[in-house]
Amino acid sequence: MKSVINFFMTSMPEGDKTEFAISIKRINIARAKITTITFVVLEVMMLLIHLMKGREKFFDAPHVCYGFMYTLMLVAMIAFFVIFTKLGADVQRNLSRIRIAGIFFISFILIWCAGISLLDQLSSGQVVVYIEAVISIAVTPFLEPAVLLLVYLAVNSLFLKAMLVTPYFQDSEHLFGNSINATTFVIMSWAISCMRYKKQAEDFIIKKIILEKNEELKQINLQLQEANRMLEIMSMTDGLTGVSNRFGFETAIRDEWNRCKRHSIPLSLIIADVDFFKEFNDNYGHQAGDFCIKTIAEILKAHAKRSSDKVAMYGGDEFVVLLPHTDREGALNVAEQIRKGVEERCMPHLFSGISDRVTISLGVNTIVPSDETSIDEFISSADKALYKAKEKRNCAVFTMQDTLKGGTL
C-alpha cells in the first residue's frame, strides 16, 4: 500500500509546501482563464449553429435542453473568468479560495459534459463529451490526487446513476458499455493526473535544490573572491609594518606612472632610510629595531594620507613614499614633515653618529612621465638623491641638486 502511495505522491519538506501550492495555483489560474475564454468562444459558436439549424425543432424538448446547456455554459464561463481574474490578483492571499473555486470549476465542467452526454444518448448513444472532459481535467490543471479522486468519484457516480434511473436518457443496449468506458477513462485519467502532479512536485523540488545549490555556489564564489582579494592584499603587504611591500610598490608605481603620463601630471617619489639603523639594531636588539621600523611606517602613513599616496617597504630599513599629482615643492614639504615627525618622536639612539635620537634621510624626485622617461630612471634618480642625503644624514635631498633640508644644515 505504501509503495502505491509513493508511486502517485511525492513527499515534500513542510516549508516548501506553501510555495509549491502558490506556484501550482498560479499555473491553474492562468490555464483556467484560457479554458473559460475557449468555452465562451465555443458556446457562442454552438448557440449560433443551434439557432440556425433548429428553427423547425424550436419547441422540441432535446433541442431546448441543448440550448439551455449552451447558454448555461456560456454564462458560467464568464462568471468563472471574472472570479479567477480577481483571485489571481493575489494568489498567496487567496490560496484557499482558489482551491475551492477550482473544485467548483472542474465539477461544473464534468457535470455539464455529463449532461451533454446524457442528451447524446437520444441520438448517438455515446458518452464522448463526458470522456473528453474527464481526460481534459486530468491533463490541463495540476490538481491534488485526493481532491480530483473525490470529484471524479462524485460526478461519475451521479452520471452512472442518471443513466440507470432516467429512462428518458438511457439506451439499454449501450448502457453497460458506456458505463464501463466512462469508469475506465475516469480511472486512467486520475492516474495520469496523479503522475503529472507528482512530476510537477518533483520538478519543483529539483528546481529548489538547484536554486539552493546555485546560491551556495554564489556564496562560495564570493568567499573565494574575498579570499583571493585578501591574498592579493597580503601578497602586497609587509607583515611587520602593515604598509605595502616592494611588490605592492612596483605594482602601484606602474599604475600611477601610466595615469600621470596619460594626464601629464607630476609624480613624486621619496625614498627614506633610517640613519645608523645597523648600530641601533645591534645595540638595542631586533625587537627594538622592529618597533622602530613600525613607528617610522606609522609616521610615513600619517604624512602621506591621501588615498592615492602609497607608503611601502623598499628594503631592510628603507621606505618609499609615492605621491601622485605632487610637484617638487610639495614632495619636499612632505619629506621635511616626515623627517621632523621621526625626529620629534624622540626614539633614543645613543649609538647614532649625528644625534641622540632616531633620524632618517630622504631622497626626493619629481617627474612628469613621458615616452622619453622610464620608471627605472625615476627610481634611480630618487635613490641617488638618498645617497647624497646619507652623506649629511637627517636631511631631505631633491635628486642630485644641492637643495637640502634638514636638521644638519
Describe this structure in words.
By secondary structure, the chain is α+β, with helices and mostly antiparallel strands. It has 2 domains: 2-215; 246-406, Reverse transcriptase/Diguanylate cyclase domain (Alpha-Beta Plaits). Helices cover 68% and strands 8% of the residues. The protein contains 12 helices and 6 strands. The chain has helices spanning 2-8, 14-53, 61-88, 95-120, 128-139, 145-165, 172-235, 246-263, 277-284, 286-303, 328-345, 375-392; strands spanning 267-274, 310-313, 318-324, 360-367, 395-398, 404-406. It has a 6-stranded mixed beta sheet, with helices on both faces. A hairpin with a 4-residue loop joins strand 2 and strand 3 (318-324). The termini are far apart.
Key terms for this structure?
single chain; about 10% strand; about 400 residues; alpha+beta; disordered C terminus; Alpha-Beta Plaits; 12 helices
